[in-house]
Each structure stands twice: as structure tokens, then as C-alpha cells.
Amino acid sequence: MKMFEGLPTSQIADLHGARWTALFNHMDEALSKEEKQLECWLNQVKEKQLLCDQGIQHVNWSAAFGLQQLGNSENNSRASTLNSSEKELAVNAAAASIYSTCNFLLSES
Hints:
- Helix content is 83%, strand content 0%.
- By secondary structure, it is mainly alpha-helical.
């Protein structure tokens, strides 16, 4: 460590402290920004999940009371033929898609 030769130990410690403090502060700032972005995405996912749950609840309610759903007849017949396991599978597929998109966006930034 030629660059520190002749310096007192306390001064060397101060130089190292300043260098590492700056690096850790930069890392802390970057992690804080990433945390905020992840929280934002999590809130968006929760909003979409709530919308999915409300949609499924509407479909179940309509089916239970024999009401025709809004939309064209093709969508109505398709929705009425979905059983609960198919609905759950569709919701899981949508959630996986959202999760995959979030991971992709994270890898890009």
C-alpha cells in the first residue's frame, strides 16, 4: 500500500472510512429507489388481483342467480362453460404473467 506510506494510522482509517461510507451511501440510495419501485409494482399487482377477484365474484354471482352477463353472447357462453378450476387456472396464469413481467422489467433496469 504505497499510497498510504508515511501516513498516520488514524489518517489511513479516516480515508478508508470516507471511501467506504460514500460507497455504502450510494448503494443504500440505489436500494431505496429499487424498493420504492418494487412497492409500486406490488401495489399495481394487488390492484389487478382485486379486479380479478371482483370479476370472478361477479361471474359466480351471475351464475348463481342465473343472470346473463354483460357482453356479447360468445363471451357469455364461454364464461358460463368455465368451471371453478378453469377460473382458478386462468387467474393463476394471469398472476404468473404479471410476475414474469415484473421480473423482466427488474432485469432491464
